[in-house]
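Check this.
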Amino acid sequence: MALVNAARYFGMIFEDRDASNNCVIHDKLNMKDSKFELLHVIEFTSLRKRMSVIVRTPEDKILIMCKGADSIIIEKLSHN
C-alpha cells in the first residue's frame, strides 16, 4: 500500500490488475494508461526492514521499487 500511495503522490495511479497479472497504471501527467507486468513481490520483514516490487515496464525494462526506512535504504545505495 505504501508504494501505491507514493506513486499516487507522483501522479501515477493504480487503476486495475488484469487477468495476466499486469498492473494498469494511469499517468496523470501524460494522461495515458500503461501496463506493468508484476514479476515478484519481496514482502517486508523485520530483518530486511523494507519491501520491494519487481516489474517489467512497457518499454520491456526490469524495474525494482523499494520502500523502507530511510536509514535502511540509504545504507543500501551505492556510494558512487
In short: The chain has a mean pLDDT of 86.
